[in-house]
Amino acid sequence: MKLQWYPGHMTKARREMQKDLQLVDLLIELLDARIPMSSRNPDIDRLAANKYRMILLNKADLADPKTTDAWIRYFADLGIRAVALDARERTMMRTIEDAVREVCREKFERDRRRGILNRPVRAMVAGIPNVGKSTFINSFAGKASLKTGNKPGVTKANQWIRMNASVELLDTPGILWPKFDDEKVGEHLAFIGSINDDIIDTEELCRAFFKDAGVKNQSAVPERYHIEYSEDPNELLERIAASRNLLKKGGIPDTEKAAAAVIDDLRRGKLGRISMEYPEEYGKH
Ligand SMILES: Nc1nc2c(ncn2[C@@H]2O[C@H](COP(=O)(O)OP(=O)(O)OP(=O)(O)O)[C@@H](O)[C@H]2O)c(=O)[nH]1
Ligand SMILES: [Mg+2]
Prior knowledge:
It is a single chain. The protein is of the alpha/beta class. The protein is built from 11 helices and 6 strands. Helix 8 packs across helix 11 and helix 10 crosses helix 11. The longest helix has 15 residues, at 7-21. It is elongated. Guanosine-5'-triphosphate is lined by residues 58-59, 61-62, 85-88, 127, 129-135, 148-150, 152-155, 173-174.
């Protein structure tokens, strides 16, 4: 499935990120735990070369826990502290705060040696659209000061939020960093809802999902819709439409509505906790 990208927009976004990074000590990268690689900015290591770094594998509640653990080890091997997260859960925020302190310990110690007390860590929260940046900041701050929403493009501009005396966070609009050479990246981003649905053919996306997560679908999809599994994506869609009574005039299965239902269920975790990318597929870089 081919998706359209806008290179001009990316160049501008990259420049802005470079500028914003000059304002902060720490980069908190939010990745989607289901697709850590496709949701990652491919230039990030170069852009943030001299910053403290942390990764939050967000929406971990929708990903397979064992795979998420493997990703945490993968990033640890690259020297980056990663934490699995459900950003809606405030209980995790203590762990995050401790991790921030640990990652930035050098800065705190340097400040102390120089007699600077209580200079907060300034952190930029970056990630693709809809990954949960604003939700995370709201949970961390303990108040819902930022607008959130289940569609890409909710945050329109940068905004600083003071957490407490020791941390200040910069919320940023989501940015997509497509890797043009890989069609899968676009598909994975579309599966999880980070690409505007207006430019997506839902049926085509759904067929791609059936192919991509083939093994999982052999049980999760038939179970959810009470149908027999089929290797043929069109057949699957027809069976789902029939079983859900989604019919067009003349009793023809409405495969478009069936596809929309599947994609919606996928994004809500109704097809189970599905990881779509695995560390073993990616060499060290
Ligand atoms: N299941 C689940 N949903 C989450 C999690 N974090 C955020 N969400 C939901 O994901 C949607 C997007 O959250 P936002 O915080 O608006 O995402 P954002 O990254 O700020 O998005 P943009 O501002 O568009 O770039 C919302 O509906 C949140 O409730 C999570 O850990 N698990
Ligand atoms: Mg936002």
